[in-house]
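We now fix the convention by which a protein and its fold are recorded. Here is one such record, which you should read through line by line:

>
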Amino acid sequence: MGYSHLARLQTEKIIDSLYEQIKGRLEKKPRTYREIARRDYLAVAKKRRVSHKERRAAIKKQLQYIKRNLSYIEQIIISGVNLESLSKRQYKMLLVVTEVYNQQLYLYENKKQSIDDRIVNLSQPHIRPIVRGKAGKPVEFGAKLSVSYFDGYVFLDHISWDNFNESGDLKAQVEAYRNSTGYYPESVHVDKIYRTRENRAWCKERGIRISGIPLGRPPKNVSKEQKKQALQDERIRNSIEGKFGQGKRRFSLGRVMAKLSHTSQT
């Protein structure tokens, strides 16, 4: 409901801007019902508890307001207003708002909660929600990274605003290590998600030991050497976890304020 409300506000601003270019050619300014729309939104948004029926009714109203406003914008353009009169930001916002309306209408009509490439931020439409399942932060927003670490250096191998399974990057990361050093590593120390059957088989073919518990039923008897090796592997793997914290605290990665996708990446 909040996204629909924000999208409606943007359509009202765009109508105001376009109307200034065509004042004399229209009998009166298109009526946006902005005060009524705001009142309808606040009537639900201020409630501590909102029933499913009330939320759907509120979303329907906001979508109807947006539909009317987009229709007005189309009529103004047909009347002779050039879209070049909009700033680059306003034109981009018009495209984003139109897509948000289409997405929210699809979710409403099909009674769904999710959709591919869902826009969750009007000013940053490239951002996608990524479910992490962490306590306190089940969902995170921002770019997802896949990195590797050896000889004290951290390498950014994959960055994407869309969610992806990083286990598919292991082969390319190991091959990059080989291209850099001339040989395969003796072992790779990876998170649980990388320990797929395919990755294990690929590493085994090349004589690479992959860290972690083997697939299948746990062995009844584990030797002291195996326990010691597993503990040492986990300690080595933990070093890359520390690099994320170091990047945020020491190198200010936690203070990146860039808004655009390409400036955020660079």
About this structure: Helices lie at 2-19, 34-45, 52-78, 88-110, 170-181, 197-205, 224-249, 261-265.
